[in-house]
Write a structure and sequence with these properties.
single chain; mainly alpha; two-stranded antiparallel sheet; 12 helices; 1% strand; flat
């Protein structure tokens, strides 16, 4: 049998292999050091953006309060920024914002939670696959479409039912905003209800509770923290809504509790000033930032309160 030729690795080949491994190790070392830095920068984008927004709002808000007193702004019931003797009371805007949001949550809250209960506890898998996409269609409709729907369809119907209602009012956009936030409340509440362990349901049923009693006395209390979170997000969405109230509620800065009358919200005022002829550096220009800062603090405090309530309920259950 012929001897096989012996292949020997040359010293130069070994050196090349060693050098190649060193290069790979150095590249791996550099990438291992760079990746955490890159991820930190990406994670910091939202924080830096929020910080930039707060700094901008604070700077312009301070400039506004150098021209308008604190007390006049937060206690004044008259807002006339374009008159010869301008007044900058924010109470009409706060009033309109709160009323429209309350109307929205009164509509969306019960419908959203009942929808979530049906989808999580009663609906079959086939029905759930049909209803969930239909709900998501509502969430995908542009808000300007909702605004024109409120102005051209809902308002005429309400004017037929309620004599004396204005062509622009706060009731119509409030109702439509409620429809708009139903998918958010229903989807988040359903997630909270589904996350409740089945053992709790089975235990209640084993003790003789009906399906309805199990749902309302066991499942909903156990998922209450998530349900509260969905309500808060829904209210925040309603407070921050712009196009619906801008189109359907008008620009009358009335301080009233009559929902059939025109009111203006904080977001609608920001749109009005930003889209008008307010010169940069004027008082009305700075009022835009003061209102935006008030809206920011308003939603921040509400979210802090909601987090506290949510954590407390979570500890109990």
């Amino acid at each position: 049998m012929a001897a096989q030729p012996e292949f020997r690795q040359q010293p130069g080949d070994i050196n090349n292999i060693i050098e190649h491994k060193k290069q790979r190790n150095s590249l791996a070392s550099v990438s291992e050091k760079l990746i955490p830095v890159i991820l930190l920068i990406i994670a910091s984008i939202s924080i830096l953006t929020t910080a930039g927004i707060v700094v901008t709002l604070l700077t312009e808000t301070i400039a506004f309060f150098q021209q308008v007193s604190f007390g006049e702004f937060f206690t004044g019931k008259i807002l006339k920024p374009l008159s010869q003797n301008p007044e900058f009371g924010i109470l009409p805007l706060i009033n309109g914002t709160i009323i429209s949001s309350l109307i929205a949550i009164i509509i969306a809250g019960p419908i959203g939670i009942m929808t979530a209960v049906y989808l999580s506890e009663y609906a079959s898998e086939r029905v759930r696959k049909i209803l969930k996409p239909l709900l998501e269609i509502l969430a995908g409709i542009p808000t300007i479409v909702y605004g024109f729907f409120a102005f051209t369809f809902v308002t005429p119907i309400l004017r037929e039912l309620i004599p004396g209602m204005g062509a622009t009012n706060i009731l119509s956009p409030g109702l439509v905003m409620g429809v708009m936030i139903i998918p958010m409340i229903a989807s988040l509440s359903e997630d909270a209800l589904i996350s409740v362990p089945n053992s709790m349901r089975e235990g209640a049923l084993a003790m003789g509770a009906t399906k309805l009693e199990t749902t309302f006395r066991v499942v909903i209390p156990a998922a209450l923290s998530g349900i509260i979170a969905s309500f808060v997000l829904g209210i925040s969405r309603a407070i921050g809504e712009t196009m619906i109230v801008t189109i359907a509620s008008g620009s009358s800065k009335n301080f009233t509790f009559d929902v059939t009358q025109s009111m203006q919200t904080m977001t609608a005022y920001i749109v009005e000033v930003a889209g008008g002829d307010a010169p940069a550096g004027s008082t009305i220009y700075y009022s835009l930032y003061a209102v935006a800062m008030t809206l920011f603090i308003f939603t921040l405090l509400m979210n802090i309160l909601a987090r506290y309530v949510s954590r407390r309920f979570r500890e109990e259950y």
